[in-house]
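> tool_call: predict_assembly(chains=three)
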Amino acid sequence: MSSCLSVFVIYMTATTAVEATRPPYWGDRFEAQWEDTRRTLHRLRKSILSILGLALVLGLIFMAVFADRLAPYPDDIAAVHFNRSYAPPSAEHPFGCDEVGRDVLSRVIFGARISLVLGTVVLAIAISVGVPLGLIAGYVGGTANTVIMRLTDIFLSIPPLVLALAVSAILPPTLQNSIIAISFGWWPWYTRLVQGMVLSLKEELYVEAGRSLGAGTFYVVFKEILPNLLSILIIKATLDMGYAILTGAELGFLGLGVRPPNPEWGTMASEGRFHLPEKWWMTTFPGLAIFVTVLAFNLLGDGLRDAFDVELE
Amino acid sequence: MKRFLYLLLAIVTLVSLAGVGCGPTPTPTAPPPKPAEPTKPPTLAPTPVPPKEVTFSYASIQTTATMDPAKHTDETTSFIVMNLYDPLLYPVKGGPPKPHLAESWTVSPDGLTYTFKLKKGVKFHDGTEMTADDVVFSMDRVIKMGKGFAWLWKGILPVGNTKALDANTVEFKLSKPHSPFLASMVQLFPVNKKLLMANKKDGAYGEFGDYGEDYLNKNDTGQGAYKIETYKPGEQIVFRKFDGYWRGWKPNQIDKAIFRIVPEQATSKLMLQKGELDMIEQWLDPALFEELKKSPGVVVKEDPNVQLFYLTLNAKRPPLDNVDVRRAISWAFDYETATKQIFLGAAQAVGPVPLLMPGHNDKTPMYKRDVAKAKELAAKAGIKAGTKLSYVYVQGLESERKIGLLLQSNLKEIGFDVEIQELPWARIVEIAAKPETAAHMIAIFHTAKYPSPDSHTFLMFHPDAWGTYMSASFYKNDQATKFMEQARAEVDVNKSLDLYKQVQPIFADEAAALFVANPLHRIAYRDWVKGYEFYGVMGFDLSWYNLTIEKK
Amino acid sequence: MRYRDYLARRLLTIIPAFIGLSILIFVIARVIPGDAARLALGPEATKDQVEQLRHEMGLDLPLHIQYIRYVEEVFHGKLGRSLYTHRDVAEDLAAYLPATLELTTVAMLLAVLVGVPLGVITAMRKDKWEDHGGRLYALSGVSIPRFWIGILLQLILAYRLGWLPTTGRFDGNLPPPAQITGFYLVDSLVSANWTALGITVRYLILPSFVLALSPIAQIMRVVRACMIEQVRKGYVLNAMANGMPQNLLVYKYMLKNAFIATLTIIGLLYGFFLAGAFVVESVFSWPGMARYGVRALIYKDFNAVVGVTLAVGLAYAIINFVIDVLYGYLDPRIRLGYKER
């Protein structure tokens, strides 16, 4: 899955950068005031959703950190209990049991660990590779810009999932390798985003002013440009967290995920497919976990976007 | 005007994209695909299928690599060949093979010369009659090409030792006595010599060119009950009945059989339940068959099978080179769970030779789960906690995956950390070829390749047979090797079987492999499919000719 | 004139990127573990045979020479033999690509036809319940795993209720429409085969809907944002003041802008469709290029991996170029006065 919303960010920042000048705000004072009130109300209503998102994300992190204490059957990452294979949901096993009698709820809880680690590391790699490259390309310009941006074009000329699939095919299926495969197609989006923003920021006066006052390049980049980028990067990273997890799940579903018995949600859902429609719980609950997780990050990202008042959509 | 130009540019680019999509050669000047040929009246297409055609569809996850009767190796390629071609002899459940294309045969007292009389009037799909010449050509072709089942005859039947005595008599002169030879005739499928030679290409075989290998990638030259109608590798194969088939046709037999490759068993199961398929493959997980038993209109047929499910234990790869480690693994494994909960009613394997195979030794020692003993042996061998072992199984086979999870959990108790890896079948075949590339353990379903215990001893543990997926244990025992060679050379069937019986306890005692189970053969089909029979030799049960469709 | 330069420049960035992609994928595929020669020959091949084939396939040459040879082959319309189907990959792609293009194109049309009106509605009813519903749908639409919703819909609509076929592209027991373009919709229309058309449509509904689910949400949000922006701009207000009827306004001025906005993201969305096809085709056993690609990946069939990836890259590049052209056609600002950044 391509980081679709991040695509918006790029497009919208690109277009706003091109347009540079906005049409003047319209309406008389009264109209403006009324609009202000409406906006506040709207924001408030939306903040409920973003607080929900935040709560869900915190809950997920909590679940991942304390998985061994929260999971009713913490041994079920590796242990098999064939005597309760395919047990349907019950009081002891609210999400039922899988084909070798492992408690699905426990595995879903442990799965949060894998997904969050995957999302976090993919983003860490993408940001630590993509942002510096984007800064260099945008700020230094010239040959560096050309080389970096042409390189980025190569990686952007194919949807990230397809690139991740190709890369994961050459590597043995482990969490580490899934992360590498996904990161492969992820960093260029940050390079392009940052480069575009640096270019437009560079034009702005205060950078020019900073320069003429004798500030060094390093200073300009880190003290002036980076803080401006920060809010957008945070929002994009939040949204991308969800998409990276989704991509990881899709790799798992296609059989290129982690090695058994690790409880990766996409792999679990894929394994449960064998037993549909009879053993629906094996597919339904891991899928639901993915959905809720991605939704949580989207809600939070959406809320952050409003909080920072960044025009992304 | 300019707007128009840009629109035109857009359209042209789109059309060229479509051109790339439709033709294999994306030349820059590729003409746009023409809409329809105006000369063709569109009235032909909407006519529905001709009435009363009996169709049948079967699904498997495995794709086909070939339909060449000199190249088939696994179940899928085998049953395709078996529908297009007939063998000289036909397998019989639990007994010696019966006459088929060969009506009768004689064996010389020294066990070296086999003479077969062929049935007269057997026609190939192009209408020409099959003769002894075709059989000679086919045998030499298999041996020279060296693929598929060539290893059955390699080293015992030199090229040129097969002769046509007259139009209907073939003689095979072996270079040494070989008791499984007669049984191996179920794997010899004569091709149409004239047709193949008319379609040969340049190749490595002198006057025979490429031996028609290229032609057989897309065509068949058989005399079997069915011929190829369409062949889409990786998708489906359509078989059409051959009107001139020598065994004749009865009502309700299948006119058109469709073999569909459905890579997800989950999907094919749903399709069978909905009646979109008539039959699905035996490789489904037994638990799925249990679910199918409860589906209305679906029959799950269970047969005792001449099949061994085992894990190879790569004796060339530490720590499995230590017999105590192999024994420890054999004591640690939970056979009870594997046979009852995973294979749902299989028998625990008693040594390598399946219980139903003539020549099975029922005094072969068996292992039972005994963790204490296993721990003791592991400790004796100096195994430290966390020692890594690799387990490889066939992609998509749920039962093998479950075995892996069970193994992982069992062996953890004695200090091993099992890494489970699924690989496509073709890749397993590749890694199994060499001790360095073969995993510690590989899950194998070994169905009898011919009705002889040789299939489950020699092919698994004789150094000459190393290099196939069956022998990835790379286990060698000089005494056993000697016995197996003697057994092959022994003309007296009973003496030969006795020798095969003697080797089985050796393999069990030294844990040459982890002998898990003799699973039941299960297959599921709609209740309107009649006449299904299981033969115990790989692929023959999927001969569409034996089936009839009786829909109400 | 300038617009033409712009297009030329776009082409100049697309082509090197595509060449770069081919090198990247080629290197990735050659690193795939597994001896392609042995895989091709099967277990019984001797060492000499394997060596000979390795030589024939050029696997013993340095990587850059192998790449050059590969490119030469490509210009002869060959993409190398698939280990899996034993045919040339170009042949395979020709057979499987139409199915994928048909699915993705139908999904794209569906996404536009549903997404744009939804975007207009949510914009018109900004901050009303329709808008909130739309936002909720947008957020869940992009969050839901495609394979999961695909499986659930398959189970409910196809298996339980029996309204739609579970899997595949056409009824396996019936002959597909006469092969003209490989697009069943077009073929059955052209040959006036209404039965086949009906069957084709029934088989298309579920997979294309699942594929379009998230793009609908994305298009909806973009159109909504664009429309709101338009309202903010003066001309709508002017027109209103001049007494233009509201409906006409919406259709005449805003819709056009909405479509332009859609166009900006549709190029990127097409990449999304192509990637989604890998998942959706697997769920619905759609006999397309993506499913072929997934299998190639699993079977380490490197010629097929390279072929599929390049085909995806090419389709993506071409669609984006077409969209650039259309964009210029629709938006006179760009066509007439494109300025460099």
